[in-house]
């Protein structure tokens, strides 16, 4: 198309940008409701051979009867449309827990346990939030420029770090696993979305350890992509302070972090801050204090060059292993690449690997023991829809992520294979049988029907 003048060109480009952003909205948006249809069960749990769910209702033993959350959104008032917290930035990080319901209210736990693992469910299985209780704030997140002269009718909530840590320790004391799992969401969702996704991930982890949903203030509004991207980077300080507090005050053996889409910017920025703060210390000293285990980036909407700078700042010194899931069919990242004119971290390199600079390829090979790239393009269900939600939609991708968290397996131990032309692992056609064979070969304690976490 040729424009008759510069004004027409500007109008056309603005229109094209609006259309693309609207497509991105459709690609990533979630309805602002307090429930979510449970994701398909990971294929590793197929045929009843591997059942991670406890026989008795786990919520009877969880000290806070739900799932923990941290959010830097503004609390919702009685006249607000949002549930519990607004889609606006707050000044502080708030801590609490949400009461979760798995399935419809008339289901017994035995029924919910059975139905949730069915590959082809004939009935809906919603995950719901019944209520939310806020304990207080992380005082350290109050910015220095915040107004200290708050009106008496709106006093600052109490510091809740100790109460939050005590709740985690109480849950860890009830669990054979002493690990913490933290999930942070992507662009364009409300407060409830990360809580619901965290609840279903924790469900398929068999309620091992303690799970924290991190709800940063993304905005479910058309054309909010740029604002949300700025927020994801700018609010990383709060995530970093939460990680430091949890590492200092809890009995966790390891803290695992799952970042999705635009939320991976938040994760990478927080880890980079930790690396810079700890410069001059050895990797062993840093990891002994922070205890960050597996960091998993899914559908990562980060500029590859910016990620390279984070690596140069020592990001890999603060975690035991970094897994980056990539796809050649992620249409949402394709739109993001168009808007930014920069390749995204969650995109697969071009066929043949010609896009990778020889020095970058050499660096990736050198870092194989610390960082893995995993191509989900051939995983079952990974390209459905817009190809961006594969960590929930693909029973193979979810199996791979959960077995990384469950056992700490390497890519080879999970049955993945190296691509011949790229320093990337991929899913072979017999992935699930290879995964199962490796679990049995390694003599891992695969939980059966009588398993309790």
TrEMBL record:
The keyword Hydrolase applies. GO terms for molecular function: hydrolase activity. It comes from the Bacteria. The keyword Thylakoid does not apply. Pfam families: DUF900. Keywords: Hydrolase. This is Alpha/beta hydrolase. It comes from Marinobacter salinisoli. The lineage of its organism: Bacteria, Pseudomonadati, Pseudomonadota, Gammaproteobacteria, Pseudomonadales.
